[in-house]
Input
Amino acid sequence: MKLCVSSTGKEKSSRVDIAFGRAPFFLIIDMKSMDMMKVVENSSAAAGHGAGIAAAQIVSDAGVDAVLSGYVGPNAFNALRASGIKVFEGVTENETVQEAIGRYTRDEYKEKTAPTMVPGCGGGKGRGMVKGRGRVGCRRK
Output
């Protein structure tokens, strides 16, 4: 099984990036051998819009079976699930990729079956100042 972990760097000792679509790198881990297979740069991380969907395409093209991140936005979540990729959320920004992999192997993350909406980052009823468009530059928690 191939696991993709959103990361701030290119090593297992790097911190996990909690925002899947904006993560600079994706580390692809072979869960049988626990070896890092490859590092994929997220070319969509700086995109104004559609970063999550583009990131989902990048990891789908890498042939992963599951994604582990802090948060996967609803559009990216739906794109990943449409590609048959499982989504696991809940990693914190204080964890290294190595620590997150360890927690994953101990079943400390549960597979998501529906996208998670984060309060204050869009997905509301549109009655606030930005009329449901979310905050500019909102980082998912």
